[in-house]
Design brief:
The protein has 113 residues and is mostly helical. The protein is 67% helix and 0% strand. The chain contains 5 helices and no strands.
């Protein structure tokens, strides 16, 4: 079972590590972040990992795709949090703008028939 706590914890950890990773110019620091994420993934909620990885066992574990995978994971976890927070929850102002943009995407007509 995927709990809100599991999503919040993974989101917080991945989001923080991604921001450092994106701005780091030190290869050793980027490698340390990849290692920390790999260790976290090994112990995280298995159902949550399966969901964000879409069954790809190399998700967040492949050096060549790591940054892309991290962005994907953070985006998916943001979406999941918004669903848990019932799209817009005034008690969680940090997610207010994220949730509004997702709501717009979900309710916007595609123009296809």
């Amino acid at each position: 079972m995927i709990t809100r706590d599991a999503i919040e914890t993974a989101y917080s950890f991945f989001h923080q590590k991604l921001r450092v990773f994106e701005h780091s110019t030190m290869e050793w620091q980027r490698d340390d972040i990849e290692y920390a994420i790999e260790q976290y993934v090994a112990d995280m909620n298995g159902e949550l990992y399966d969901t964000i990885s879409c069954g790809n066992g190399h998700f967040l574990r492949d050096h060549q795709h790591f940054e892309h995978d991290m962005n994907s994971a953070v985006n998916q976890l943001e979406n999941m949090l918004c669903l848990f927070l019932n799209i817009v929850d005034s008690f969680h102002p940090l997610f207010f703008n994220i949730c509004l943009s997702i709501r717009k995407k979900l309710t916007r007509p595609t123009g296809r028939s």
